[in-house]
Design goal:
alpha+beta; 2 helices; about 40% helix
Length: about 130
């Protein structure tokens, strides 16, 4: 039976972020522009990204669609982003300063070429049909 991931609790998310930070730091030591570390990161979090992205899409879009077409709804059991995560063809992390009202902060900016060849499935149904 397939295990369907759910949204992480704040504590689980913090633990996952720490684990991924360690993994990314290790992979980045090999090469700053080598996309493998970004692809490893994407694969590690893809199931959570998928659940979150779909919940946002459905929670935002479904009310609008239902207002236009009465009875239309997402079949949430049959919607997914697929098992193949996004892939980085090129990736870099650069530091960037930003002025905010409280002063200056340092940001890490992720740049690169992102590709996704996924097997997205969005299933919608109409009540009474």
């Amino acid at each position: 039976e397939e295990v369907v991931p759910s949204l992480l609790t704040p504590l689980e998310l913090a633990d996952e972020v720490k684990r991924l930070e360690r993994e990314v730091a290790f992979l980045r030591e090999k090469s700053d522009r080598d996309p493998r570390w970004g692809n490893t990161l994407a694969a590690s979090v893809w199931s959570h990204v998928s659940v979150y992205a779909l919940s946002v899409i459905m929670d935002e879009l479904e009310p609008t669609l239902t207002a236009e077409i009465s009875g239309l709804y997402f079949d949430r059991e049959n919607c997914h982003l697929g098992g193949r995560p996004v892939r980085w063809d090129d990736i870099a992390i650069i530091r960037a300063s930003q002025d905010i009202p409280e002063g200056k902060i340092e940001n890490l900016v992720l740049t690169g070429h992102l590709a996704w060849d996924g097997e997205l499935s969005i299933c919608m149904r109409l009540h009474g049909v």
